[in-house]
Design a protein that fits this description.
Layout: H1 11-36, H2 46-63, E1 68-72, E2 83-90, E3 101-107, E4 116-119, E5 121-124, E6 127-132, E7 138-148, E8 151-161
Antiparallel strand pairs: 1-2, 2-6, 3-4, 3-7, 5-6, 7-8
Length: about 160
């Protein structure tokens, strides 16, 4: 006579149930972390900014002077070690341009709290430079903004700090 065993004692059934429990628990942990540790990369006035951008886009395109901006970034940037970034700004004919101000912005895509900006100094006609030190390891989005009156012209670049 064979005794009938309970299916709950079978190692295959227990393994599948354990796998399902681990999967569900991992999803709950990820949902909790996503809600609790939100970096808040959305601005409060997103709708108004979007309307302003659309309204003024054609005006900006009409006033575009055709400046050519080239960022010169070091090949390797280490964390907490100053690195020299420069930008060269020329007009359509290739002559140097001297805007009112030039600012270096660094954005951390994963954490808005680490974003910073540094004003760039005039080195030569149309050439601006700044010593930049990145506080954290990883990817950074760079935006160099040149302001002339009310107009602003930007050049972007992406680097990885501390990664060879």
């Amino acid at each position: 006579m064979t005794e009938k065993q309970s299916p709950w004692r079978n190692p295959w059934v227990l393994g599948w149930i354990g796998l399902l429990v681990v999967f569900v628990m991992a999803n709950f942990v990820m949902i909790y972390l996503a809600i609790d540790r939100n970096p808040g990369l959305v601005v409060d006035d997103y709708y108004e900014r979007g309307q302003d951008y659309e309204k003024n886009m054609l005006k900006r395109q009409a006033r575009n002077p055709g400046w050519k901006m080239k960022i010169k970034a070091p090949e390797f940037v280490d964390v907490a070690v100053p690195a020299r970034f420069s930008i060269k700004i020329v007009d359509k004919q290739g002559y140097p341009v001297s805007p009112d101000s030039v600012t270096f912005y660094a954005y951390r895509p994963a954490n808005v709290d680490l974003d910073f900006s540094v004003p760039m100094q005039v080195i030569d006609s149309g050439v601006y430079e700044a010593e930049i030190s990145f506080p954290n390891l990883g990817v950074w989005d760079i935006l160099v903004s040149a302001k002339q009156g009310d107009d602003e012209y930007n050049q972007s670049h992406r680097i990885s700090a501390g990664v060879k």
